[in-house]
Amino acid sequence: MVSSRISYILMLLSLVWTNSGLASPVPIGEKLYTRHCAACHGAQGNGGVGVPLSLADLHAVVDDEYLRLTIRHGRPGRIMPAFNKLSDAEVGALIKHVRGFNKTKIKTITVKPSKGDVTRGAKLYAAHCAACHGANGEGGHGTGVTYSRPRDLPVLAPALNNPGFLAAASDVVIKKTLVHGRKGTPMPSFLKQGMTEAEIDDIVAFVRGFVQREPAMSAKVLDSENPILIRTSAYNVAETSERVKEAFSRFNMRVIRTVPFNQGMVEAKDENPQQMIVDACDFGFLNKALAVDPRVGLFLPCRVTITQHNDKVLVMTINPKRLAAIFNNSELNQLCDEMSKIYNDLLDEAVQ
Fold first, then answer.
1. DSSP-derived 3-state class of residue 230
2. How far is CA 117 from CA 199, 206, 329, in A?
């Protein structure tokens, strides 16, 4: 009797568990999109740092395999990371959610790519494509509809030589894009502009040829390094703070403030003078960096932390060379290299 009652209770618990959705969780595309995609592509797929995903012509041209491979491979060095830890079911749920952004009835586009001529394609590409996509397929500069460029341009010209793009875009997808164009972007229909299908096949052959070449610099990121640059100072915290401010000035940075690290988090009487921060900025460099990637505003202006740790005074700041790898933006490479050298020199000068 007891055994039967326990079995019955277990059966009821099993039903509750299953009906609550906890037994076999089903990936929900909207939640996955909000977690992984919305920050760049916008909550409704209207774009931002990332490209807009709601354009009707995008959905008319690309197939689910293109979306799947884009999610899997990303675009190395071009903002879009690779989501290779998502399950196939989660990727499928994401694709279904993204497809839901398009509220327009999609007209089926059928094309039959033929083997084109690479030599003819190179000439056609130079004449019709290079102005936007770059002479070597490196794509537009900057990031989406943000500070990087005028907001009347909803999408940057993609990097056609990027290994992520080449892995995701089949010849059919590339040809469909050339034939159909993409309303709401600078990408026209080449067919409507008078180009023949044979000529379009030539361009497709040329673009596909990027696979045989060494990945462009736009597909390379800096190796990830230690996130923090750190030095030990021979001076006390107050003296080191002054030396840091002097070093900032010599590197043409404007000192913005010098305050206790915990200012604003505690009462003024409890602020710790043995933990200080010095903020400074080279505004010319800041504007240049923001034009490359607005996300650099997360770590600029420059901040140096000075703290008493046991019997040592430590001077620390973020390592800029870590940022290009974190942001997956190879255009930051040169700026991060430049700023990393300045930070190292500045810290050395402050503690000597």
1. strand
2. 9, 8, 33
> Looking at residue 329, what DSSP letter applies?
B
Beta bridge partners of 329: 78
Give the per-residue pLDDT at 297.
Answer: 76
Q: Is the peptide bond before 188 cis (omega within 30 degrees of 0)?
A: no
**What pLDDT was estimated at residue 27?**
57
Are 132 and 156 contacting, i.e. CB atoms less than 8 angstroms apart?
A: no
Tens digits of per-residue pLDDT, 192-208? 999 999 999 999 999 99
* pLDDT score of 17: 45
Total H helices, total E strands in the chain: 15, 5
Which token pair is 62? Answer: 């690309």
Half-sphere exposure of 299 (CA within 13 A, CB side): 19
Q: How far apart are CA 301 and CA 64, in angstroms?
A: 42
CA-to-CA distance for 283 and 46, rounded, in angstroms? 30
pTM for the model stands at 0.76
The better pLDDT of the pair 156, 37 is held by 37
Tokens of 118: 């690479």
Distances (CA, A) of 32 to 81, 191, 242: 15, 38, 48
Decide: helix, strand or coil at residue 257.
strand
Please give the C-alpha separations between residue 97 and each of 27, 33, 106, 118, in angstroms, as whole numbers: 11, 8, 16, 38
Greater confidence (40 vs 120) lies with 120
Per the prediction, the chain carries an average pLDDT of: 86
Report residue 233 as tokens.
């100072």
pLDDT at residue 224 in the model: 64
> For residue 304, what are the β-bridge partners?
278
- Residue-level pLDDT at 227: 87
